[in-house]
Design goal:
The structure is a single chain. The protein is α+β, with helices and mostly antiparallel strands. The chain folds into 2 domains: about 5-40 and about 55-170 and about 270-310, FAD/NAD(P)-binding domain; about 170-270, Polyamine Oxidase, Chain A, domain 2 (Alpha-Beta Complex), CATH 3.90.660. Helix content is about 30%, strand content about 30%. The strands form 5 sheets. Strands 7-2-1-11-18-17 form a 6-stranded mixed sheet, covered by helices on one side.
Length: about 325
């Protein structure tokens, strides 16, 4: 029987799961559709400016995750957010650095977009766009849950009824991230600012955060879930026309460049009751923030728990 474990998705859930399985001597390959690593721990360069586009920071509330974060801090890959009033962690030099760090030593195949997974005698076959298929004995899906379920549907894989219905009900909020390069320093506080009402949910200055070089503001603006859902198809210029006038006082300097990143699956509306799904009779697992709970920590713990269910806890 093929003993390879194919992990679809190189976000923090998939990477931590793959590392845990490899540490137990398993043959693991990680398939990631994009060039980047870390999923929503994402960073984008726009000309001279650098922006964290997805998760702006993460917290560590559980003892297990806090211990891991301490190890990452000792390795110099994460640090407290400079100037932040709460205990927030950011990766160094930018959020995508944590994904790169966790992928080190793993067999990660980037730009390998899985479009279908099929259960066959003795294992699985994963169809990859414009590449040869990947054979595996087990498959773990860690992409946002609607995408994972779509891969199973494309391969005519039916989940047991007690799982299929509840998982199909889980959904995600979208997010639009406007990336604004300013002509001078911004008025956004060093720790960022969360807005309780209106179309803007969050602003952070990547220059004050230590992500973007230079002295001009490089501001990530996360729009609210309801606004993002209504205006998801709009261009960066259209969105800027709607948003920038209302946050001009926060910006404090003119906008000289606008870019946009769309997150169709930004955060789960609600998390499933269990932290992961493992179906040994199929050799199939699912993990991610829709199971483990929202935010970086929930996704991380989901991947770790699934690894334990698959091979048992390390001695």
């Amino acid at each position: 029987m093929n003993e390879t474990i194919a992990v679809v998705g190189a976000g923090i859930s998939g990477l931590l799961l793959a590392r845990a399985l490899k540490a137990r001597g398993k043959d693991v390959v990680v398939l990631e559709k994009s060039r980047g690593l870390g999923g929503r721990l994402a960073t984008k360069r726009v000309e001279a400016a650098v922006f964290d586009t997805g998760a702006q920071y993460f917290t560590a509330k559980s003892e297990r995750f806090a211990s891991m974060v301490s190890e990452w801090a000792a390795a110099g890959v994460v640090a407290p957010w400079p100037g932040a009033s709460a205990h927030r962690w950011i990766a160094q030099p930018s959020m995508n650095a944590l994904g790169k760090f966790l992928a080190d030593g793993l067999d990660v195949r980037r730009e390998a977009k899985v479009v279908k997974v099929q259960h066959k005698l003795g294992g699985w076959e994963l169809t990859i766009e414009n590449q040869l298929a990947q054979q595996a004995g087990h498959v773990v899906l860690t992409a946002p849950l609607p995408q994972s379920l779509a891969l199973l549907k494309a391969g005519d894989v039916d989940l047991p009824i007690e799982w299929a219905g509840p998982l199909a009900q889980l959904s995600y909020h979208p997010c639009l991230a406007l990336l604004l390069t300013l002509g001078g320093a911004s008025a956004v506080p060093a720790e960022g600012v969360a807005l309780a009402e209106g179309p803007v949910r969050w602003l952070a200055d990547n220059t004050k955060k230590g992500i973007s070089p230079g002295k001009v503001g490089a501001v990530t603006v996360h729009l609210s879930p309801s606004f993002a859902a209504e205006h998801y198809a709009k261009t960066e210029a259209e969105l800027a026309a709607l948003i920038v006038p209302g946050i001009a006082d926060w910006l404090g300097a003119p906008v000289v460049n606008v870019a946009l990143h769309r997150w169709k699956f930004s955060e789960p509306v609600a998390a499933y009751a269990e932290r992961c799904v493992w179906l040994p009779e199929l050799g199939l697992g699912l993990a991610g923030d829709a199971l483990g709970g929202p935010r970086v920590e929930g996704a991380a713990l989901s991947g770790l728990e699934l690894a334990e269910r698959m091979v048992g806890k390390a001695q």
